[in-house]
Structure formats: structure tokens, C-alpha cells
Amino acid sequence: MSTQDIQNLKTFDPFAEADDATGDSAKAQSQNYIHIRIQQRNGRKTLTTVQGLPKKFDQKKILKVIKKKFACNGTVVADSEMGEVIQLQGDQRKDVQDFLTDKKEGLGLDQKTIKVHGF
Amino acid sequence: MADAADPPTERKPRKSVAFSDGATIVDSDGQVTESADMNGGKSSAESHATGDDKEVDEVTDMFANLAKKKKKKSKSKDEDEAPADDGDVDLSALKKKKKSKKPKAETADEFEAKLAAAGGDKADGEAEAEEEEKPFEAEDMLKGKGIWQHESTQPINYNLLLSRFFTLLHSHHPDLSSGSKSYKIPPPQCLREGNKKTIFANISEISKRMKRSDEHVTQFLFAELGTSGSVDGSRRLVIKGRFQQKQIENVLRRYIVEYVTCKTCRSPDTELSKGENRLYFVTCNSCGSRRSVTAIKTGFSAQVGKRRRQQG
């Protein structure tokens, strides 16, 4: 009997966030949100960072698409703690969020896994 | 007359009508009561003789006493009544001259008198109702001017006093008067320091209102805004970067949703405390629920500005 068959080992996280326990999707991803942040640079320039994209996506490819789509420059930064982070020039929070949740041309991620920070 | 003492600039336009002149009193009264009927009555009143003022006054006094007992009368009834009275309104300039400055009381009395003159037994109740419904000048109430003046000898009835009390309470301690359900915090005051720093002046006041520590709010602000800053001598927060009041407000709003309001009963009356295992817990004071909240994480912050010499 493999471990897959044992019902007891099916993961249920009793410590999952209480308020968004809407089903299976919340369970698995409660810990790893995708954070979209904004930082101010000098003048009215800003920087958007996307942190915590699922490992199954190739960050470089995503970046390439995003850069083309939003007409901005960007880069992938490897951070020691946060892993790979996409940096984009300008305030792309709304765009990135739409892109990540878009089912047709985006990644089709769940809206609940994305957290947008900033003002 | 007493209104001479009041500088006309402080008064609202409708009050700036001169009372000293017997002929114009009528207009001012009409405006104060905000009733078209009253205006109509006024013009007719002017033309009337002032002979029976004496009796009217007596009657009025009687009714004034009576009126105290009656608390509530519908305004609609009042309005119905008014046009009927217009025909035989008398009383006017003489009586008003006796009165001191505040137009409110004058009108009330006049109205009573009018009703009395009309000869209705029911008049007393209506007069009282009219008095209750009168719009109060918020400024007068707050600053203690007009009838609220200390040396003013005018009798103030219970309802007026009560409404003044609640007005004052509302303005000074909004959270004590449970009238409105919405949770209010004072708007954040943002000043610019130099070119690239923002001063968040009333953070201590706001965090006190939310019953959170300054540090916690500060930490959250910095994490959300992706910046850093410091606290200056007078406990104001200096944030690096240019931020507008609206932006700070947005972040504060998110803070309140996340760390202040109770998720169960939506009450903002909660406390944040550190639990056993370094987790933060929000305990609701009104429903008693307790939930853990995520610690504030700064997350990734990119290198902004000049790069220092690469080490290694």
C-alpha cells in the first residue's frame, strides 16, 4: 500500500487561515501568497516587484511576456530569502494582477493568492 | 439692542438682518423659521395694529408654561396649522423689541402668540413642536454664543440643552456617541519635509484611537509603502519618499481591516496582544472572539537609489 492510499496522510492544514478557508485552493496556498509591491524611486518613478510566483512557471519567460505586454523594462532578481523576484519599472501593479489572474492570456491564478501592497 | 454687540461678520447671512429696526424684524424672523407661511404671516402682521399685544403676551406666557409639558408633536400637523393662522396674525414689532438678541426664541414666541391669537386650544403643543424642530446654529452651540452665552438670561428648554449636549459630545468624542456605526479615525496629516520626505504628523493620535502601538502601525506603514523612516522629536513619523494624504489613508484603511476590525462582529473595539508563541492575537472586546493575525513582513525590497560598493 502506497502512502497515497492512506486517507490519514491526505493533507489538511488545521492551521490554515480561518477567514479564507473556502475550499481546497486556500489550503494549499495559504502560505505562499504572491506579493505585488511598489517602491518609490527618485522623482515620480516607481518600481514594481512580484514575489512568490509558483515554481512551475519560468520567471524569465513570464518576464519576457510582461515586458512586451506592458511596455516596460524589468529584470529577475535572485534574492537569498525570497527566491526569484520580478522587478518591473513603473507602477505595474494593476497590470500584473490582471495578467496573473487572466485565464486566457495570463497565468490564470486564483485571485485570492495574490496580495497587492502599497498605497 | 443686544445684537449691536454681536459683530455682524460672525453671524450667518440670514441673521445679519437688522433687528433694531422695527420694520425689518419680520424678515429676519421669517428666514429663521424657514417657513414660507411664516413669511406670509409676517407681512400681514406688519400691517396689523399692535393694540392687542398686551393680551397676546399674557396668553403667550400661559402657553409657554403649558408647552413645556408637551414633548412631541408631529411637524406635519404644525405645518398644516400654520397657513390657517396666517389670516389673523397680529402682534409684532412691539413684542419683538422687548426681546433680546436671539431670533430663535423670538420666533418661537411669536409663533406661540400667533397661535394663541388664532384662539386654538391645541396651539400650545404645536408651538412647542415648532420650537423643537427649529434648526440650531451649530456654531452658536459649539462656541457658546447666542442663547448659549453665559450671561444670557434667556430660558433654555430641556430639548435645546439636550441637543447641545449631543452636538458637543459628537464633535469632541465621536466614539462616545453611538449614533453612527461607522468607524472613524482622524484623517492623517501629511507634511512634506524637504523634497523627498513625508511627515506623518498625527500618527500617535491615530494609533491611540485604534488602540495599537505606534511601532506596530509604523512597521506596517513601512512594510506596505516599501520604504523606511524614523520618528522625530515630537513623535511624528518621518517617512522617506513622497506620499500624499490619500495614499497614507489607503494604507491605514488596510491596516484597520487587517489588524483592527474584528472579523466576526466587525467591531473595531479590539486589542492586539502577543500570544504565547510569538504570534499576535487580536481579541475582540465586544464579542470576545480571538484570532491570530499575520506578523508584518517586509518582503523583498529592491535596491533603490545609489548602489553602495558591492561587497565580496
UniProtKB/TrEMBL annotation, chain A:
<keyword id="KW-0396">Initiation factor</keyword>
<dbReference type="InterPro" id="IPR005874">
    <property type="entry name" value="SUI1_euk"/>
</dbReference>
<dbReference type="InterPro" id="IPR036877">
    <property type="entry name" value="SUI1_dom_sf"/>
</dbReference>
<dbReference type="GO" id="GO:0003743">
    <property type="term" value="F:translation initiation factor activity"/>
</dbReference>
<comment type="similarity">
    <text>Belongs to the SUI1 family.</text>
</comment>
<protein>
    <submittedName>
        <fullName>Translation initiation factor SUI1</fullName>
    </submittedName>
</protein>
<dbReference type="InterPro" id="IPR001950">
    <property type="entry name" value="SUI1"/>
</dbReference>
<feature type="domain" description="SUI1">
    <location>
        <begin position="34"/>
        <end position="104"/>
    </location>
</feature>
<dbReference type="Pfam" id="PF01253">
    <property type="entry name" value="SUI1"/>
</dbReference>
<dbReference type="GO" id="GO:0006417">
    <property type="term" value="P:regulation of translation"/>
</dbReference>
<keyword id="KW-0810">Translation regulation</keyword>
<comment type="function">
    <text>Additional factor that functions in concert with eIF-2 and the initiator tRNA in directing the ribosome to the proper start site of translation.</text>
</comment>
<keyword id="KW-0648">Protein biosynthesis</keyword>
UniProtKB/TrEMBL annotation, chain B:
<dbReference type="GO" id="GO:0031369">
    <property type="term" value="F:translation initiation factor binding"/>
</dbReference>
<feature type="compositionally biased region" description="Acidic residues">
    <location>
        <begin position="79"/>
        <end position="89"/>
    </location>
</feature>
<dbReference type="GO" id="GO:0001731">
    <property type="term" value="P:formation of translation preinitiation complex"/>
</dbReference>
<dbReference type="GO" id="GO:0003743">
    <property type="term" value="F:translation initiation factor activity"/>
</dbReference>
<dbReference type="InterPro" id="IPR016190">
    <property type="entry name" value="Transl_init_fac_IF2/IF5_Zn-bd"/>
</dbReference>
<dbReference type="GO" id="GO:0005850">
    <property type="term" value="C:eukaryotic translation initiation factor 2 complex"/>
</dbReference>
<feature type="compositionally biased region" description="Basic and acidic residues">
    <location>
        <begin position="103"/>
        <end position="113"/>
    </location>
</feature>
<keyword id="KW-0648">Protein biosynthesis</keyword>
<protein>
    <submittedName>
        <fullName>Domain found in IF2B/IF5-domain-containing protein</fullName>
    </submittedName>
</protein>
<dbReference type="InterPro" id="IPR016189">
    <property type="entry name" value="Transl_init_fac_IF2/IF5_N"/>
</dbReference>
<keyword id="KW-0396">Initiation factor</keyword>
<dbReference type="InterPro" id="IPR002735">
    <property type="entry name" value="Transl_init_fac_IF2/IF5_dom"/>
</dbReference>
<dbReference type="Pfam" id="PF01873">
    <property type="entry name" value="eIF-5_eIF-2B"/>
</dbReference>
<feature type="region of interest" description="Disordered">
    <location>
        <begin position="1"/>
        <end position="137"/>
    </location>
</feature>
<feature type="domain" description="Translation initiation factor IF2/IF5">
    <location>
        <begin position="180"/>
        <end position="290"/>
    </location>
</feature>
<comment type="similarity">
    <text>Belongs to the eIF-2-beta/eIF-5 family.</text>
</comment>
<feature type="compositionally biased region" description="Polar residues">
    <location>
        <begin position="30"/>
        <end position="47"/>
    </location>
</feature>
<dbReference type="InterPro" id="IPR045196">
    <property type="entry name" value="IF2/IF5"/>
</dbReference>
<dbReference type="GO" id="GO:0003729">
    <property type="term" value="F:mRNA binding"/>
</dbReference>
